[in-house]
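Section 5.1 Outputs to date
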Amino acid sequence: MRKIFYPMFVAVMIITACQSKTKTTSGDTDAIRNIEDQWAVATKTKDINKIVSLFVSDAVEMSPNEPIAVGIEAIKKGWELWFSDTTYLHNAYTFKIDTIEVSASGDLGFVRGTNHYSIKMSNGIVEYDDKYISIYKKKDGEWKCIVSIWNDNKPMEGQ
């Protein structure tokens, strides 16, 4: 009996030690959803400072048909360029979250969703939809975006 007890005891101790001590709570998904809501408002109002405050300093943003932006300054320049384009009707921007997932460890999460926006073209207002993924990391109790990537569902006119 002793020969079985000690190996079983050690196995239980190892399994217990390897299990995550952090539990994901609905508070994590709520916090990420809140960030996404803030991001949408900042997009509608062209609040670049708010948008970049949602990222970690070495974040990566991958916009369609643009070079990869690494770091806050590069991300900020990308948003400045986008907001300076008056063909985009930023105040009409909407988004829909399809899913928010948080890792079992409680320190990584992602959002998958869709965006809808309108663009003034020579032939009138054109509606566009795209899809996105934002990856978040929780550090010191605060969620920040570490990677944002999106692409269009169809090519822009003239492309």
